[in-house]
Amino acid sequence: MIEIKSPGELEAMRAAGIVVARALGNVQAAVKAGVSTAELDEIAEQTIRDAGAVPSFKGYHGFPASICASVNEQIVHGIPAPTQVLADGDIISVDCGAILDDWHGDSAMTFAVGEFSAADADLSAATRASMEAGIAATVAGAKLYDVSHAIETATRAAAEAHGRSYGIVREYGGHGIGSSMHMDPFLPNYGKPGRGPRLRPGMAIAIEPMLTLGTEETLELEDGWTVVTTDGSRAAHWEHTVAITEDGPWVLTAPEAS
Ligand code: MG
Ligand code: MG
Question: Which residue numbers in the chain have pLDDT < 70?
Fold first, then answer.
């Protein structure tokens, strides 16, 4: 069963999404050489709590922080630490979730520390474009794996355009979201179109491709959380929470219009 939200409930999810966007914006502004991922975590948590919301990651299956901070070859689920200090040339993917009035938002972005290298810029752009293609395909009447197919197609197109080979991380993917963070259905970031449940207004899905500059193979570190590429190649991760409406996809974790 895929949860269907009323228009009012989607408005409530949008409010949660704005809190997540604000937290990521504040983290982005603080990303620079010499800053630890624990400091970024504090900024995100403070932003979320200042909005009267709760960081959904903190305590989730025992996760100890409000963001996942995944640096360089770390793909997802990196644990922020005072000893993990950013250096120029690093890239960092920050994933953040918040609960406001019992509704969830979930979003991730990849940032450069200093300047992106050409390869890292392409990697992040390809991942972001894949997410955007997935968002555009998240429309009423489509089948779920039409979204997967749109994501994969955009990844292949970016690889072609960039003259690079991107690894599509297969063990992790998008998910339904709403009254919980992780709900049915699971959304692979690749696949054949025309299959899966039909998308209907009131559904909400977190769309989150993860790409690497090398392998598709992943390894979970002994901390029980951090997922890395097995070949040490760098990874990027972009995510938005998206609602299906009669008027098309609604990006619930987009920043507030200024
Ligand atoms: Mg996330
Ligand atoms: Mg997610």
Answer: 258
Ligand closest in space to the Cα of 20: 1
Closest-approaching ligand to the CA atom of 181: 2
Q: Distance from the CA of 89 to the center of ligand 1, in angstroms?
A: 24
pTM, two decimals, is 0.98
SS (H, E, C) the chain: CCCCCCHHHHHHHHHHHHHHHHHHHHHHHHCCCCCEHHHHHHHHHHHHHHCCCEECCCCHHHCCCCEEEEECCEEECCCCCCCCECCCCCEEEEEEEEEECCEEEEEEEEEECCCCCHHHHHHHHHHHHHHHHHHHCCCCCCEHHHHHHHHHHHHHHHHHHHCCCCEECCCCCEEECCCCCCEEEEECCCCCCCCCCECCCCCEEEECCEEECCCCCEEECCCCCCEEECCCCCEEECEEEEEEECCEEEECCCCCCC
